[in-house]
Amino acid sequence: MQPRTHHQSERDWARQWERQRQTSQSRAQTEPRPQSHSRQATADWTHARATQRELETLRGRLEAAERRQKRLLNTVTGLARASGVSVGSPCNRCDRSHLLVTANAIHCPSCGYARSL
Prior knowledge:
By secondary structure, this protein is of the alpha+beta class.
């Protein structure tokens, strides 16, 4: 478990810690070491454990990225609202940005597409 950073809330840190604790407990209960002493059985078991750990790591990274993306979307929407602009749908021309909607125009900041209303 990594140490808590200054921008991570107490609740997020506690959830992450609890998830890792439960994962390590469930691994110990559900995956007994093979009784066969052959090298191939041990290698297969070790590979399966490594794959499972990698999958759990990737799942955690994906969940963290989704949380960051949601925060960024909320931040951008708040900034747009404060400046008198709203965030529209994704641009149909370039699909690299969302359209910015003002009282009389729609504008894409990535490709420059603009249309008056």
